[in-house]
């Protein structure tokens, strides 16, 4: 049975203007203690063997490579498990890549965001496009089994030609996987405080459709609203989330799921380290979904994927098909590219009763 482990690394050298994640730029002195606490949490949890591990953040590649390798070695894996580590391009070195490969990492995810300098500046990113190119070439030279180019569209100052340039230059690196997300305004971020930099919905919709066309033509198939991959390179860990599978979160602010029960750890690294050191639970809160809530969530998650949902699970199906939002293949209904832009409009029409 599939089981995932997510490890949260909360350290960054700079917080991007759009970021609302649990990350900090002034806590690097805690890295060693934090990794030790994560290793302790893994040991105490007595986890089943994982079919996938995802190390995210933050910037995992800011942690010394040997420390990451030691932490990963503590996680028991099923044979053939997928192990992903997120990396900022400017932190990627041959030593880092080689060390992670030796530690069993099978997949790297590079936060490229854009290949246009002024767009990266507008997003508050530190790296330049050349760093993204170097990171991708290092992954290819080291024969990393798979890697992802993580992109954001709709940033302030980005033009249509900039987005097309980003797609073309990223495709020139032959990525096995591309994630492309519309810039989102999160409360409390510098982006939220500056209305002049907020993205335009219509512009973002147009750029999403460009991404769908360009990436599909290049042989990367959409398998979830924001993710495209060559055959066999879909992110198995993320598929676990979209299939409502079970997973365990390690580290501060990390979330876990076990058959309808969710819980999450304390948000700050200091509180997390202290809780583990004193042999206290780092859990900050939990919730239980009843059977109807689980069934609805399962449909909502599946709707995001290329597998869609049972056609009987969508109310007003004929209307949505006629409107070009949904297509029916056999007994399954799935979102069209236009429908992905309005996924929430389709989701509110999901019917749980007798749908599974």
Q: How would you describe this structure to a colleague?
A:
With 356 residues, the chain is α/β, with parallel strands linked by helices. The protein contains 14 helices and 15 strands. It folds into two domains: 239 residues, pyruvate-formate lyase- activating enzyme (Alpha-Beta Horseshoe), CATH 3.80.30.20; 57 residues, no CATH class. A nine-stranded mixed sheet has the order 7-8-6-5-4-3-2-1-9, sandwiched between helices. It has a three-stranded antiparallel sheet with strand order 10-11-12, with no helix packed on it. A three-stranded antiparallel sheet has the order 13-15-14. The longest helix is centred in the middle third of the chain and has 17 residues. The chain starts with a strand and ends in a 9-residue tail after the last helix. The mean pLDDT is 96.
Write the layout of secondary structure elements.
Elements: E1 3-9, H1 31-45, E2 50-57, H2 65-73, E3 77-87, H3 94-102, E4 107-113, H4 117-123, H5 129-141, E5 146-153, H6 160-171, E6 177-182, H7 190-193, H8 201-217, E7 221-224, E8 227-229, H9 236-242, E9 246-250, E10 255-258, E11 261-265, H10 269-277, E12 283-288, H11 291-303, E13 309-310, H12 317-322, E14 326-329, E15 332-335, H13 337-341, H14 343-347
Parallel strand pairs: 1-2, 1-9, 2-3, 3-4, 4-5, 5-6
Antiparallel strand pairs: 6-8, 7-8, 10-11, 11-12, 13-15, 14-15
